[in-house]
């Protein structure tokens, strides 16, 4: 299956990423496929290098307190001013893919950590983190600017080949 | 008739007055005890409007989950945000869409603010209390559901709802019924899972949890970013509390993004409770009371008639 193959590839990529990431300094020469939550859309081809450059090698811009750089958000600073680099600073190591899974919801609600109680799942972590910045610096913000819609998505959104017949009132389709 | 003097009138009136007072007294007590206040462990959703990007994914998710008819425009069509219906109002819920996302351009704000509209699942729902066939149920999980088989299509709930949520299947000429969001009760909530819109949202604008936990979270969230959030959890107190609650940003107060901020804290039923409590009293006491008056008034005459016959 294509999906399985992709997953294996992703795993291999992850394994490859772990080694440079356990060393100090930013990961290099990486373009990863962010595809853990793909369904309605394809995964996102994410150029990590390019983003390191754009943020001026400030890992905190995306990684909060897990990449060994000091956090700036006053809510994080309270506890994480001196937090070391995490063993795995990737998004999915902290942000659950199945955030609405019963066990995960319980874990989130029961956490004694004040600002972790409402920790977003992986999908939301990606979108909030990326979109916030993209909006600010004028980078692309349209859905299909980052990931192409799958057929499942077209069916879900009633668009593409599943688009409703245009009526007098329903003219003017298209995104944004 | 003229024989009824003041004294006998007062005597009769006093007796019935005492009975009426006794009845109203007991009714008054029932009225005070009638505050329900919601199930203790009911679930809810906290909507952080500052995070919504207006992508309409929740609308699409609702459409699929509830098997609603295909939309007029694709869910990727953002022109719907600019649609204006009669009265200059933005889109509202309908038989084809149990939830809609509307856009609000607020003066002094760089970006528009988006607001998702659906049933707020009141703690003491106006729709439920207004329904004379008891089609509505507030489940212990928090959802306000309804039985379309019982609905007679009178649309009283549409008038009773302070949020203008129940819609009507005008497209069905044979058996039109009321249609609205049921918080995905049948397919998800019943099994402890969040509604489809909550799960589909790419920004996780909505947090699903116990209502009491959400209220706590909402206030802590406001406190953690006091310069961002307006210090008001919409739905915590409004109309006696709702299962769906909202946070907004300081530069987009609720009144400017389509929320009714004059609803008060009382459940809708409270406005008519006293009147409704009198109805059974009127129906049971008045016939007896006025029969009594009539008998008193005609007693002498009847006596006279009796005497003249004998």
Largest sheet of chain A: 2 strands, antiparallel
Any idea what the shape of chain B is? elongated
**How big is the Rg of chain B?**
27 Å
Widest β-sheet, arrangement of strands of chain B: 8-1-9
CA-to-CA gap between the ends of chain B? 22 Å
How many strands of chain B? 9
Verbal overview:
- The complex is a heterodimer of chains A (176) and B (310).
- Chain A is mostly helical.
- Chain A has a single domain, classed as Cytochrome C3, CATH 3.90.10.10.
- Chain A contains nine helices and two strands.
- Chain A has helices at residues 2-22, 48-54, 60-63, 74-80, 91-94, 102-110, 122-137, 143-146, 151-156, and strands spanning 31-34, 44-47.
- Chain A has a two-stranded antiparallel sheet with strand order 1-2.
- Chain A starts with a helix and ends in a 20-residue tail after the last helix.
- Mean pLDDT of chain A is 82; it is low at 15-24 and 170-176.
- Helix content of chain B is 34%, strand content 11%.
- By secondary structure, chain B is α+β, with helices and mostly antiparallel strands.
- In chain B, strands 8-1-9 form a three-stranded mixed sheet, with helices on one face. Chain B has a two-stranded antiparallel ribbon with strand order 2-3. Chain B has a two-stranded antiparallel ribbon with strand order 4-5.
- Chain B has helices spanning 6-33, 57-65, 126-130, 156-160, 196-200, 211-224, 270-309, and strands at residues 43-48, 100-104, 113-117, 136-138, 144-146, 167-168, 178-179, 206-210, 244-247.
- The longest helix of chain B has 40 residues, at 270-309.
- Chain B is elongated.
- In chain B, β2 (100-104) and β3 (113-117) form a beta hairpin.
- Chain B has seven helices and nine strands.
- At the A-B interface, α6 and α7 of A face α2, β8 and α6 of B.
């Amino acid at each position: 299956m294509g999906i399985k193959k992709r997953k294996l590839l992703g795993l291999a990529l992850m394994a490859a990423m772990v080694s440079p990431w356990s060393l100090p300094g930013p990961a290099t020469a990486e373009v990863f496929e962010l595809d853990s939550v793909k369904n309605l859309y394809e995964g996102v081809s994410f150029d990590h290098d390019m983003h390191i450059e754009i943020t001026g090698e400030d890992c905190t811009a995306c990684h909060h307190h897990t990449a060994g750089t000091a956090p700036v958000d006053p809510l994080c600073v309270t506890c994480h001013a001196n937090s070391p680099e995490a063993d795995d600073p990737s998004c999915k190591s902290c942000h659950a893919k199945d955030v609405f899974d019963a066990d995960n919801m319980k874990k989130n609600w029961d956490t004694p950590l004040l600002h972790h109680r409402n920790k977003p799942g992986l999908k939301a972590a990606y979108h909030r983190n990326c979109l916030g910045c993209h909006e600010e610096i004028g980078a692309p913000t349209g859905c299909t600017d980052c990931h192409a819609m799958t057929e499942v998505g077209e069916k879900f959104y009633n668009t593409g080949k599943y688009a409703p017949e245009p009526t007098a009132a329903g003219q003017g389709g298209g995104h944004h | 008739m003229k024989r009824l003097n003041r004294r006998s009138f007062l005597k009769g009136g006093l007796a019935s007055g005492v009975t009426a007072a006794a009845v109203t007294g007991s009714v008054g007590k029932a009225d005070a005890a009638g505050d329900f206040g919601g199930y203790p462990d009911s679930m809810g959703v906290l909507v952080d409007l500052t995070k919504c990007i207006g992508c309409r994914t929740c609308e699409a998710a609702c459409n699929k989950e509830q098997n609603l008819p295909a939309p007029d425009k694709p869910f990727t069509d953002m022109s719907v945000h600019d649609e204006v219906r009669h009265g200059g109002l933005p889109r509202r819920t309908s038989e084809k869409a149990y939830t809609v996302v509307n856009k609000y351009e607020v003066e002094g704000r760089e970006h528009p603010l988006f607001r998702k509209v659906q049933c707020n699942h009141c703690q003491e729902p106006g729709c439920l209390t207004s329904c004379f066939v008891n089609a509505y149920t507030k489940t212990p999980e928090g959802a306000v559901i309804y039985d379309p088989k019982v609905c007679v299509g009178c649309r009283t709930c549409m008038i009773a709802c302070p949020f203008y949520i129940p819609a009507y299947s005008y497209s069905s000429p044979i058996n039109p019924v009321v249609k609205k969001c049921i918080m995905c009760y049948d397919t998800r909530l019943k099994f402890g899972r969040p509604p489809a819109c909550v799960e589909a949202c790419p920004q996780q604008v909505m947090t699903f949890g116990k209502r009491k936990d959400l209220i706590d979270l909402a206030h802590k969230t406001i406190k953690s970013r006091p310069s961002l959030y307006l210090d008001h959890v919409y739905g915590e107190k409004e109309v006696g509390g709702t299962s769906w609650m909202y946070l907004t940003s300081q530069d987009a107060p609720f009144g400017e993004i389509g929320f009714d901020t004059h609803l008060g804290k009382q459940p809708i039923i409270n406005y008519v409770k006293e009147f409704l409590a009198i109805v059974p009293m009127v129906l049971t006491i008045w016939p007896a009371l006025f029969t009594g008056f009539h008998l008193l008034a005609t007693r002498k005459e009847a006596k006279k008639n009796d005497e003249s016959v004998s």
